[in-house]
Design goal:
The structure is a homodimer.
Chain A (H helix, E strand, L loop, with lengths): L5 E6 L2 E2 L3 E2 L6 H9 L21 E6 L9 E7 L2 E2 L1 E6 L2 E7 L5 E4 L9 E6 L38 E2 L3 E7 L3 E10 L5 E23 L5 E21 L15 E9 L2 E10 L4 E4 L21 E4 L2 E3 L1 E6 L11 H13 L4 E4 L8 H10 L2 E5 L11 H18 L5 E5 L16 H13 L5 E2 L7 E3 L12 H7 L4 E4 L4 E2 L3 H5 L4 H4 L6 H5 L15 H8 L5 H25 L6 E4 L10 E2 L3 E2 L3 E2 L2 H8 L3 E6 L4 E3 L3 E10 L7 E10 L2 E11 L6 E9 L7 E8 L7 E8 L1
Parallel strand pairs in A: 21-22, 21-29, 22-23, 23-24, 24-25, 26-27, 34-40
Antiparallel strand pairs in A: 1-2, 1-3, 1-4, 4-10, 5-9, 5-12, 6-11, 7-8, 7-10, 13-14, 14-15, 14-16, 16-17, 18-19, 19-20, 28-30, 31-32, 33-35, 35-38, 36-37, 36-39, 39-40
Helix pairs in contact in A: 2-3, 4-5, 6-11, 11-12
Chain lengths: 722, 722
């Protein structure tokens, strides 16, 4: 049953006027609503929220009068409160905690007369003593996601409040308190050894039954065991389980189970859930053991290739960030279109980056259903999280809550300590106790899912996030010169999806031409990252595309570079298979409208044109060209090495690729290549060359067409200059 | 009280004739003694032991008649049994275990009438199913040290039996079962927060008292607490503890403590022990955060520099291996001279390599006393230890026993999963559950001592183990071209210490000239490592030194190359400080007489001449020359860059180095360098050059002499050719 919440901030320790509160939500949104503020996403409106991060806030709600039967009890149940808080009932503190990822349950049976008030005192956002003010360093002694302290695509805006469902629930005193179904698969993957466990709220003396239903809903297993005492266990086996497969490799088969506790024929409790049978490993890419033969020898690279159900999977995907500044507003409906699009882009892996929140259950439910694997990081990013006992204590509890909640999801393919922690800007090391603690908790609670300390590990590559790397090198050349086991982050900036979208959050007087004005900078157009031109990089656009005619032209230029840049990286990473096992661009989505950044999708779900190009680059089977650079000179000799990319274990056929260029509407054939494709193996063809015509055109198109199979065709739009 | 042991092997499941057994010892040694066999170290005698590894063996001893008072009980207590075994009393199995590092205690009070027989059935040496026969792969599913399955300096000879003390002990029923003193130091290192804990065998109702004595024996702390129940705890603080320092940096201060349990004024139990207060960290070397700026970025190197009590220590030392094939024969007297020599060589760190046993207590006691830090590996080496439940279960117990036993020693500076596990010849990875388990156990039981998965980690260098690297490159050039955070293994082979020593284990007809004959090969003269000439490498000796006149000349040549080779590496590693934090040669000692190998000391404690050179290279302050190669041509321009190496935090002075060469007894001055030395910082001087005289001499000497301070002088003997 829902509660009617109010909230206020405290001034000198005293409550100010209470305002209606939306739960789940955030105190900032409640306050803004009460004040009739404009959208925080518009212009620089977010700045007025700054003071709120340092205030205490108090929620209150009357516990309703309940008529509880003798065999019933009432609980206040909440999925998560952000961030540090004390819960009181009628003035007496009953529970205090630090951390947003651990659910709360409080027995309120004694306070259900309609007169008692539940209060939750929210502490100010945590800030490490000694940290540089208003930087994400402030997050480095807490489990508060660092991103909200300010990032190159996230304003400084730190949500606080009840961010998951909170309600009063009346339950039978005698019930199943919690249940879980765990399994291991034999080496041949044709037998699942299942252990179902249930904890009871009382000493049972009955029977625990398990029913297992296959993806079609048919009962495939029914068994039961005596349940005497506070818990019950059922061990059984399922022969030839339908395995859970990721996108592009099979069906994401999900079974459902029902555990029923009965005593003397009476049903005492039922627990239900889903299970996907899969075995996931993080293995060495082919050839990575051959690295580094010279003495003195250092180690070989760390594993960076996913193996699902015994099959090596080339992981294609992206870095998922929080889809809203305020996680309390996120629902199933927030996630669904974003994840459906990820599937449409042929993605099979999302890296849930450690700077952001650990997502709500709906995210993982949908990933389970769509066959999208999840690389899940703990909330550590780009900081030196020091080994203080206070921090380790919070991290211990929060990480256990996260692992226990998520380990049931077959989509969870990899645990990871956090983002870029072993790099110079973070300065954590293999010795950091926080990371060793996370290893311990993952080992104890979910040992068969891989665990990494951080990304990148030795051999993996992160970055860069530019189209032009050096005076002479663009992203085409840079990625071809790189040699990594996985590309776990690579960015390609662009302006937002459309002029209309831009004008929805940038005031008219700042909209064009774009300069380093307050709203443009706030929405990451300038000074967002290391370079003052980031992320708009109008200088780069002008270098490759010339001066834009207008805003629409600027947007067209920007999308062109983002699209071809992302295509160049995704396809080259695939060409480096099997040494390379992974290509994840930075980033997929964004938490508010970014004027410019590296995302594929604008907030909340507005696709940039590069989505179509990335989808093409990630097709299981696709023609591809290895092209040395983006910009060519009219009259010079153009060269492209032909490839057929193949991540499919089913695709094996022969065919012919015909290559041509189109310049100014004229088609110039370059040559053909007869290829033979074998499963999950790329084929490399000849390098074809053609002299580019003398022309004033600013671009030309390389077309690869596959005889009789246009679904594998590819087109590259490249820059031309005189 | 000692037991009188007998042992026999089993044939078709039945005991053969019992023979006297020495405990601690090994079944092989008992059998050889009974058969009057010659020394297993001589020639190829070890071959006749081969069958014993596959036999079951049974020890037996009569439990003596004991008159136990009502408040007493008797225990069979044993420090360790090698390897898998069942303990029976009068035919009934009372205990079974796999693993040599976990002590055993069995209450035998009910069997102390003089008629009961204690039997220990020793299982055959463990061998992984499917492993290549007679290779160290066989050790990869057990905690049996891999070295005894055959190594390039260890014969195939797998000890079995009772390898630690075993006795009957009568104890009071009411006693302290175990006690421990743990501490943490504050950041300023001037307060030790001490927690003393004691577990009792009964529910006490008395007082637990703690006395702490400083290194001079003076009482510095006395306190007590109520002890009610099965255990007692005392928390207290010690101000300004004298810290434990390693060799070269201060005194290895050791305190002693006494815990006394009293009830009603009566002393019930006393536990005593030692403690050294120190804080050890594994940190990033200066400059290592600046590595790898190019995009895509991988991680920065792993930490490889020790920090002791807030002071960065350049670690100089060696790789310690088992000092005997049969660990049961090792005593305090085995360790003491070896460790005293390590101190004399200015070593401050020994890496106890994962292929060998975890040493007995005496080893760590002496290291504590001498200020030698220990890098302690678990028993994993050069294999893929797979994630089977059976293996993980053994490793879990054995590693816990090891950590709990050793964590009290201040000398324990680093835990490490094992040797070369992340390299292509081992093929374990960051995902290996065995390593994640070790990380977890170290975190839980000894979190403040650093832990590494293996060596080398990214940035560290292992190898090589040759004088000549390529046609054009010797070790001088190779190490100068290397750039590592630590040199954790580097070898330089030589023949054994002397002709007399050689003739003590090589039959006369094989002694000279040395060919690939059975005893020469068995003692690692040929085909020991990757190259057929290893470890004698007579071809290398001839290349640099010419044909030897006789055995004595061959030995002289070999020691010359080993000495100058080791000097080149130790000094160059020191020159690469502070980026580089460590120089550990492979290896220090050996378990039996090696005709040739990389050790500094022959079995059991016979120093090779290179010991003196390594001692000189490791002096806290020393003149040094960076010389591009070992062999020079008469008449060419010789060059040497002058250095003053300084690892001392006390040394700060100015001085003058005078460089000269001596060729055929004639001194040729090259030049002088006025240097200024600051604490713990090397000084680099000019490169001096001189034209080498035309001469027929085969060597010349570079002399560096420091005015008024001959203790810093250095001499290099280099090769000359026409």
């Amino acid at each position: 049953m829902d509660l009617v919440w109010q909230v206020c901030y405290l001034e000198n320790g005293a409550d100010t006027a209470y305002i209606p509160a939306q739960v789940p939500g955030a105190v900032q949104l409640d306050y803004a609503r009460a004040q009739n503020w404009d959208d925080h996403c518009y212009g620089t409106n977010y700045l007025q929220y700054k003071w709120m991060e340092d205030a205490f806030w108090r929620y209150k709600a009357v516990i309703p009068a309940l008529t509880l039967a003798a065999d019933e009890e009432a609980f206040f149940v909440c999925g998560g409160i952000d961030y540090a808080y004390d819960i009181s009932i009628s003035g007496r503190v009953v529970y205090s905690y630090e951390g947003m990822f651990t659910p709360v349950e409080i027995n309120v049976s004694a306070f259900a007369c309609g007169a008692d008030v539940l209060e939750i005192l929210i502490h100010p956002a945590p800030k490490r003593e000694g940290a540089d003010a208003d930087t994400s360093q402030e997050a480095s002694q807490s489990c508060k996601p660092a991103v909200s302290y300010g990032w190159d695509w996230h304003p400084r805006l730190i949500p606080l409040g009840i961010w998951e469902n909170a309600e009063i629930i009346v339950r039978k005193k005698k019930r199943i308190a919690q249940a879980e179904l765990r399994y291991t698969l034999n080496d041949a993957l044709d037998i699942a050894h299942i252990r179902a466990t249930a904890d009871f709220t009382f000493a049972a003396n009955g029977t625990l039954s398990l029913q297992l239903f296959d993806p079609a809903g048919c009962t495939v297993l029914e068994t039961s065991a005596d349940a005497c005492g506070m818990n019950g266990t059922i061990d059984c086996t399922l022969a030839i389980p339908l395995l859970w497969w990721c996108n592009g490799h099979g069906e994401p088969n999900l079974y459902t189970y029902r555990l029923t506790l009965t005593e003397n024929g009476e049903t005492i409790g039922i627990a239900e859930g889903r299970v996907g049978f899969r075995r996931v490993r993080f293995v060495m890419g082919e050839g990575t053991w051959a690295d580094g033969d010279a003495f003195p020898k250092t180690r070989n690279p760390a594993p960076a290739t996913l193996e699902l159900n015994g099959r090596v999977i080339f992981a294609k995907g992206s870095n998922w960030v929080n889809p809203d500044i305020f996680p309390g507003t996120i629902t199933h409906g927030t996630y669904l279109p974003l994840l459906q699009t990820a599937k449409d882009l042929h993605f099979n892996l999302l890296r849930c980056w450690g700077g952001a929140i650990v997502n709500k259950e709906a995210f993982f439910d949908i990933c389970d259903e769509l066959g999208i694997m999840v690389w899940q990081e703990f909330p550590l990013s780009c900081n030196a999280y020091a080994d203080s006992n206070a921090y380790l204590n919070v991290l211990d509890k929060e990480s256990q809550s996260i692992i226990k909640r998520l380990r049931k999801h077959p989509s969870i393919a990899l645990w990871c300590g956090g983002n870029e922690l072993f790099n110079s800007w973070s300065r954590m090391t293999d010795q950091s106790l926080a990371l060793r603690l996370l290893n311990k908790n993952c080992y104890e609670l979910d040992p068969l899912t891989p665990f990494n300390y951080t990304s990148p590990l030795y051999g993996m590559g992160h970055g860069s996030y530019v189209f032009q790397y050096t005076e002479d090198t663009d992203v085409f050349g840079a990625i071809q010169a790189a040699h990594h086991t996985a590309y776990t982050e690579f960015g390609m900036p662009s302006i937002c999806a459309s002029e209309e979208y831009l004008r929805s959050f940038i005031p008219a007087d700042e909209a064009y031409p774009l300069h380093d004005t307050p709203s443009v900078a706030a929405h990451h157009g300038y000074h967002a990252w290391m370079h003052p031109e980031s992320w708009l990089y109008q200088n780069t656009l002008e270098r490759y595309c010339g001066k834009p005619a207008d805003l629409a032209d600027l947007i067209r230029q920007s999308h062109w570079l983002q699209g071809e840049g992302y295509r160049a990286i995704f396809e080259e990473a695939r060409r480096q298979k099997p040494y390379c096992g992974m290509a994840l661009n930075w980033c997929y989505n964004e938490p508010w409208p970014c004027l410019a950044n590296n995302s594929l999708i604008n907030y909340p779900h507005v696709k940039k044109p590069s989505c179509d190009i990335v989808a093409a680059a990630c097709r299981p089977v696709a023609a591809s060209a290895r092209i040395g650079r983006f910009q060519w000179v009219a009259g010079e000799l153009f060269a492209a090495e032909l490839w057929m990319l193949n991540d499919s274990y089913d695709a094996a056929f022969t065919g012919t690729v015909r290559a041509s260029i189109i310049v100014g509407g004229v088609i110039y054939p370059i040559g053909n290549w007869d290829f033979t494709l074998t499963p999950n193996t790329n084929a490399v063809g000849p390098t074809l060359r053609i002299c580019l015509p003398e022309t004033d055109e600013k671009s030309f198109t390389l077309c690869l067409s596959v005889d009789g199979a246009p679904e594998y065709d590819a087109q590259y739009t490249l820059a031309l200059k005189k």
